[in-house]
Amino acid sequence: MSDVAKDKAARLLKKRGSVSSLSSHEVKAKETIGKTKDSMSTVSYIDEPGQQDDNPRPAVQMENTYQLGPAKRFPVATVNNILKDVLTSYLQEEKYEAELCRQMTKTICEVIKARVKDLMIPRYKIIVLINIGQLNEQNMRIGSRCLWDPTNDTFSSYTFKNTSLFAVANVYAAYFE
User: Fold this and answer.
1) Per-residue pLDDT reduced to its tens digit, 111-131
2) What pLDDT is stored for residue 84 in this prediction?
3) Which residues, in sequence order, are CB contacts of 53 under 8 Å at separation 6+?
4) DSSP character for 32?
5) What is the CA radius of gyration of the chain?
6) Alpha helix positions (H), the chain
7) Which of these, 99, 96, 103, lies nearest to 164 by C-alpha position?
8) What pLDDT shows up at residue 54?
9) 3-class secondary structure, 39
10) What counts of helices (H) and strands (E) characterise the chain?
11) 145 or 20, greater pLDDT
12) Is 88:160 a contact under the CB 8 Å cutoff?
């Protein structure tokens, strides 16, 4: 590997905060310099694969909060209203077409995720799942599994039907300590 390529790789690693491919001497030097008595967390920024700029972003240091539970509970009723509003507005007059529904699923997921994030509920990871299918006198069961903390984690679900399709929207809110 040429020196220019190594320099570029080192800059990218420093930019993303990774030290996995640095030499052991550099890692040891970084470990001894970075040790402090107080416990601190570091937040790094990760760019999209297509975005490459040479301006390094500084790491933001935040103190540990030692908060084990949410200060504000996830508003299930508000999210149910969001699901109902978005699914009704996007799918009310639509007929089932496989290719159109594939694109609508992606669009509706992004819209719901954005509207839920606009509620600004801290420390919750949001997962949005949308299933759209043809309404054709059939049965369907949808299941999901994950590690779950019943005291802090929750979900919201809404089912929509019109004359030719059905849609099931699930929003999972997993509390992140």
Assistant:
1) 999 999 999 988 899 999 999
2) 96
3) 47
4) H
5) 23
6) 3-16, 24-34, 76-91, 98-117
7) 96
8) 62
9) coil
10) 4, 5
11) 145
12) yes
Residue 32 CA to residue 93 CA, distance in Å, equals 63
Q: How many other β-carbons are positioned within 10 Å of the β-carbon of residue 96?
A: 17
Q: Is the dihedral of CA 75, 80, 82, 83 positive or negative?
A: positive
Sign of the alpha-carbon torsion through 136, 87, 122, 60: positive
Q: What is the C-alpha to C-alpha distance for residues 56 and 142, in angstroms, rounded to an integer?
A: 44
Give, in order, the Cα–Cα distances in Å from 55 to each of 30, 58, 62. Answer: 22, 10, 22
Among all chains, which residue has been given the structure tokens 């799942």?
Answer: 129
Between CA 83 and CA 67 the distance in angstroms is: 30
Q: How far apart are CA 133 and CA 140, in angstroms?
A: 10
Question: Across residues 166-171, what is the average pLDDT?
Answer: 94
pTM: 0.62
Q: Using an 8 Å Cβ cutoff, are 157 and 166 in contact?
A: no
Q: Could you give the CA distance from residue 149 to residue 153 in angstroms, rounded to a whole number?
A: 5
Tell me which residue of 104, 71, 106, 70 sits closest to 89, measured CA to CA: 104
Q: Which helix (H) or strand (E) holds 150?
A: none
C-alpha distance from residue 47 to each of 8, 53, 89, 145 (Å): 16, 9, 33, 30
Query: Which ranges in 17-46 belong to alpha helices (H)?
Result: 24-34
